[in-house]
């Protein structure tokens, strides 16, 4: 299963909830690397915490299958969307 990011940008607009990304917070929760088109301007070198595949390889592969992990990430995205677009 491939993680189906729709590039909504909601996660990168609320990094104030992610301690590992505090250095990128522009002050209102929006990442300084998020472009106007909701793209990451450091995509190839983005931190692992922003990289679904890297986080699975380095951490979550010891705890669950890849499909379970992807489904958990999709659920997390849906929760963020509900929270910030309601
Ligand atoms: S909230 Fe999820 S779907 Fe939206 S940009 Fe972030 S990872 Fe992609
Ligand atoms: S570094 Fe890139 S992927 Fe990570 S929060 Fe910022 S814009 Fe989003």
UniProtKB/TrEMBL annotation:
Top-level division of the source organism's lineage: Bacteria
Matching Pfam families: CxxCxxCC
Protein name (database record): Zinc-or iron-chelating domain-containing protein
Native species: Eubacterium oxidoreducens
């Amino acid at each position: 299963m491939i993680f189906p990011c729709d590039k909504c940008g909601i996660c990168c607009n609320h990094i104030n909830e992610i301690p590992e990304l505090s250095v990128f917070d522009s002050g209102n929760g929006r990442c300084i690397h998020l472009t106007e088109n909701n793209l990451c301007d450091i995509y190839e070198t983005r931190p692992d915490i922003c990289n679904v595949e890297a986080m699975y390889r380095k951490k979550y592969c010891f705890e669950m299958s890849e499909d379970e992990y992807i489904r958990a990430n999709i659920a997390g995205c849906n929760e963020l969307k509900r929270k910030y677009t309601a």
